[in-house]
Amino acid sequence: MPLVRIDVQQGRSTTQLRKLADVVQEVMQDVFAAPPGDRYQVLTEHPVGQVIAEDSGLGFRRTGDLVILQVFHQGRSEQQKTSAYEQLLTGDL
């Protein structure tokens, strides 16, 4: 099972945080075939001003809703990784 770190700025409700973690877990199960009982997530909330994510020339407008995901895994194909990222980007996070 992949280890997932989720970093967000403070301000979300407990329900919103759980939904975020659940969507990430669903993608891990769907794409990486993770067993339902294997869930390794570290969700960290940061005070406003302690997450600095500035435009890197891509033209993104950043908001306080920024989510930073780190997924640590081994033995996954390029296709699986691409599919996971696509699902995470289009998921209701």
Architecture overview:
The protein has 93 residues and is α+β, with helices and mostly antiparallel strands. The chain has one domain: Macrophage Migration Inhibitory Factor (2-Layer Sandwich), CATH 3.30.429. The chain contains two helices and three strands, in the order βαββα. A three-stranded mixed β-sheet has the order 2-1-3, with helices on one face. α1 links the parallel β1 (3-9) and β2. α1 packs antiparallel against α2 (78-90). The radius of gyration is 14 Å and the shape is globular. It starts with a strand and ends with a helix. The model has no long low-confidence stretch (mean pLDDT 86).
Secondary structure layout plus pairing:
Layout: E1 3-9, H1 14-32, E2 40-46, E3 67-72, H2 78-90
Parallel strand pairs: 1-2
Antiparallel strand pairs: 1-3
Helix pairs in contact: 1-2
Helix segment tally: 2
So, CATH architecture? Answer: 2-Layer Sandwich
Per the CATH scheme, the topology name is Macrophage Migration Inhibitory Factor
Rounded mean pLDDT score: 86
Q: What is the spatial order of strands in the main beta sheet?
A: 2-1-3
- What is the percentage of strand-forming residues? 15-25%
**How many structural domains?**
1
CATH homology superfamily: Macrophage Migration Inhibitory Factor
